[in-house]
Structure formats: structure tokens, C-alpha cells
Design goal:
The chain is mostly helical. Helices cover about 70% and strands about 0% of the residues. It is built from 11 helices and no strands.
């Protein structure tokens, strides 16, 4: 290829004729592909015509109509633009910053996890094993009983006493004021702390 072929572009009159013959139909087609977004459809129309300008050999071909080529190029450009938008993070305006919640840094959760681990070390192996089954592995009472080789009633009682021991080992955690002795072994904040 010589330099003259690389620099050759579609004649301005041929491009204007192409736009007047197919521009309106192409714009309607692109408007459908962009779900009615006029700005995107206009951008895609301009990019499609730009491609026709860059490739004069297409206009010089013996096609009966240029419309199929234009539609194909426009559709491919729309697909590429949609994929690019999906990869890119969503754009937000300055108003969104005012209502955006502050992201938690996770420090409090990390400290709680360390406190729970330390408190678990103070429990007997039987109590620790039942809490691991029930809260960390999400086993039911029957599943925990099978895994530990003890009756279901033993799992329930060990869970109750293990949580009570955890509550004593972690004085800053547990149910708040108003939670009486009959509040249950695995209810409220205790379940969250043990998990």
C-alpha cells in the first residue's frame, strides 16, 4: 500500500449524499439500540459516518445499497459502547456525594472478632466445639449432635452455658439494658457476638 492509499478519504459530497439518503433511517435504528437515548444515538451516527469517511472503498463497491453496511457498523459501535459502559464504574454527579453513606473501615468488626477469638479460648473444649458447630458452621442442633457424637439435648445445654460463659468473658458485649434472664441463649446481640 502506498501512502496515497492510506491517506485517501471519502469525498465530502459523497459523504453528504450518504448522510442525506440514509442518515434519518440510521438514526432511528441507532435510537432503538440505545433505548431512546438521543445523545448516544447521535454520537453513534457520527461515528458510523466517520467510519464511512475513513473507508472510501466501501462507497466505491458495487453494493445495491449502503444501508446494510451502515447498520452493521452502527450496531457494532453500539455494542462496543454498551460493553465499555458496563466495564466503567457508574458516573455520579456532585449531589450523590452529599447523600452517599460513609464506608465503614471494618476496624470495629476486626476488634470484635479478636475479642470473640480470645473469649473462645477461655471456654472448655466441649463448649467451644458446640459453638463452632452451631454458629460458625451454621449446623442445626441435630447436625451438631451428629458431628459431636452427643444427644441433641446436650448440644442445647452446652450452647446455653457456652454463651453464658462468653457473656462473662466479654463484659462490653451482650444484651443491653432491659434484657432479663429469660431472654434466651441464642437471641439478640449474643448470637451476633458468638457468630
Amino acid at each position: 500500500m502506498t501512502t496515497t492509499t492510506l491517506c485517501r478519504r471519502t469525498d465530502a459530497h459523497a459523504l453528504a449524499r450518504l448522510q442525506s439518503e440514509h442518515g434519518k433511517a440510521l438514526y432511528g435504528f441507532l435510537l432503538g439500540l440505545t433505548f431512546g437515548d438521543r445523545h448516544r444515538a447521535e454520537d453513534l451516527l457520527q461515528e458510523t459516518l466517520f467510519r464511512a469517511w475513513k473507508h472510501p472503498e466501501v462507497l466505491e463497491s458495487d453494493h445495491a445499497s449502503m444501508r446494510p453496511w451502515l447498520y452493521t457498523v452502527g450496531r457494532r459501535l453500539a455494542i462496543d459502547a454498551r460493553r465499555a459502559r458496563q466495564v466503567r464504574p457508574a458516573e455520579v454527579g456532585p449531589d450523590a456525594l452529599d447523600i452517599a453513606p460513609f464506608a465503614e473501615d471494618g476496624t470495629e468488626q476486626a476488634v470484635t472478632a479478636l475479642d470473640v477469638r480470645e473469649a473462645l479460648r477461655t471456654l472448655s473444649p466441649e463448649h467451644r466445639a458446640v459453638l463452632v458447630q452451631i454458629y460458625f458452621r451454621g449446623a442445626s442442633v441435630c447436625e451438631a449432635a451428629r458431628a459431636l457424637g452427643v444427644p441433641a439435648g446436650t448440644v442445647k445445654s452446652r450452647t446455653y452455658y457456652a454463651l453464658r460463659a462468653l457473656r462473662e468473658a466479654m463484659p462490653g458485649y451482650g444484651p443491653g439494658p432491659g434484657a432479663g434472664p429469660g431472654s434466651g441463649a441464642a437471641s439478640g446481640p449474643d448470637r451476633r457476638v458468638a457468630a
